Structure formats: structure tokens, C-alpha cells
Description:
It is a single chain. By secondary structure, this protein is an alpha/beta fold. It is built from 17 helices and nine strands. It has helices spanning 2-11, 19-26, 29-34, 37-42, 48-54, 60-71, 86-89, 123-138, 151-161, 183-192, 209-219, 235-244, 262-269, 279-285, 295-298, 303-310, 322-331; strands spanning 75-78, 97-102, 112-116, 142-145, 166-169, 194-197, 223-226, 248-252, 273-275. The chain has a nine-stranded mixed beta sheet, sandwiched between helices. Strand 7, helix 12 and strand 8 (248-252) form a beta-alpha-beta unit. The longest helix has 16 residues, at 123-138.
Amino acid sequence: MIRYWTWLSLCLDAGSSHLVPLLEKFGTPKDIYKTPIKTLQDSYILSANELKRINNKSLDAVYKIIDECKETKIDIIPYDSDLYPSSLRDISNPPACLYFKGKLKDIRNLPVICIIGSRKISEYGKLVAWSLGGRLTYGGMTVLSGGAMGGDALAHQGALAVGGKTIAVIPCGLNYNYLKTNDFLRKQIADCGCLISEFPPNAPLYKNAFQLRNRLLSALSLGVIVVEAPKKSGTLITVRHALDQGKDVFVVTGKPNDPNYEGSHALLKDGAKPIFDADDVFCEYTHKYPHIIDPDKAKTINLSKLYRSLYTPKVMNFDDPVEDNKKEEQIS
């Protein structure tokens, strides 16, 4: 039952690798709830903090979360649900529950591609992230990113500009006021795709949340596209997760000696796949999703013209607002 899955998700540390061993040894979350604490302790599966939380049998917090989800139209997708993405079951630390908000509740059979880039993205990177998001979506793929400033936001906006589906994986609760500047963007994403989080609706942002979120970005996708990454970039954390999970890693090439691309070029040296346009991505997946992906359709839209019409010099401003950028950099 959903209340026991929600309870278990609250008991486990964020990003815990103990969910699957716990289920294999003791059965369902309801079985775990009824298991004596001494038995759980003797299994040596749980951490001290997890044992402390699991010993608290009150379900008050659980019912509060379920009520909050109903009020704000958030779906709780537990680990045993048919809607739970099977790709998450393949990682070592899958969430016990996912929180979905939006129209796109079933993403299991979609060709999802992750596009990520630096928060302080260059003008060239802005155009690349936006156009890749638009062209790949228009050709039938679903663009996923992290909803952050910079490259993430541009990829989402490109997908939305052509009426495509896009998914944002959020590093906090879906009702938490994360990045006020992107609030309208998140509403648009929910209207055309979905927002996903492993955190309860009002859970705040904390330091390690971005790294935990990044493992989901790669796990939910067929591959990861790096638009732009300096030498030290959170983008590279997502790439490491992708490599560990056996996912494809694509990298947009930049100017030689450009510090914004030092991390990108290092990935290319290590064997990442260079991409020069959307076709380099389509050719990897069209044969797997011939009924969904249409590269020829993607060529019929004039994205350069659309980009100029939407983002004229007068209104175009993708630079991070000072306060939002400071907060996000301090936390991550």
C-alpha cells in the first residue's frame, strides 16, 4: 500500500542503497513496518539513523504527505508500481518512491535523452542547448534535464518552443520554492511533460541533493548530452553516473582552449561520442524507436528563425539572476 512505501521512503537515507536488500530479506514495506526493530538491527542492512527512523511507527507524517500530494496534484509512484521506470530498478540506490507532477505519468517506453550544461553557459552554448532540445523533441524524443539555470533551462525551453515533451528532475520537493526565476518554466514543463522528484512535496534543498538528483538524470535516459562543461562542473557528476550505468555519453565540441569546454574536451579524449547536430543522436536510437523517432521531421523546422523571434536582444536574458545563482552554487 502507498502509505507503507511512503513511510519506508522517509525512513531510508536519501540515496540509500539499502532498499533492495531490505525488500529481498523482509518482503513488502508493510512487512518491514511490522518486523521487530531487533530483527532489523541484526540484519546489518540499515544505518543507525535509518534504524532510528524505522523504529518510529507513527504514520502522521505519511498521511500529511499523501494529503499534500492530493491537494497539489502530485502522483506518488512506489517502487513496485507498473509506472515506476524499470531503468531505476537497475541502479544500486533506487528511490523507494517517486513524485510525479504533470501530464506525462508513464515515461517507461519513451526515447528519453538527457541534455545538461553549465549554469554559467556561454552564448554559443545557449543556442546549442536550445536548438538540440527543440530539434530532438520535434523529431520524437523526450528531452530530460534538471530544471536548473543555464544549460538545463535552455534545453527545456527549446523542447517547449516546438510543442514537445520535456521532463525536469528536481533536487527537492515539487512544492518547495526552488529557483523562483524558473517557477514559470516548471509550470510549463508540468503542462507539457512532467516534473519528477524523489523527495516529498515540501522537502527543502540541501547540499548533497544535486548529486543524488544527477544519478536519476542519467538513469532515466538513454544517454546524456553534455552541451558545455568546464573542468570543474557538476555536469561531470552526471556523466560519471551515466558511465557507471552503461549509458551513452555525447559531447558537443567547443573551441580549443576555451575554459568553458575543458571538461567537455576531457570527456572526448576519454571516448565520449562527439556530436555536431541532432542527427548524431537520432542515428543511435531511431532503429530502436522507429514508430516514435522521425529525424526527417526534425529537419522541417527552422529553429534559427524561431530562436531569433523568441529571444531578441531586447528580451533575451539567460544569465543567472544574482540571488538564485548564489543560492544554487552555495548549496551544490
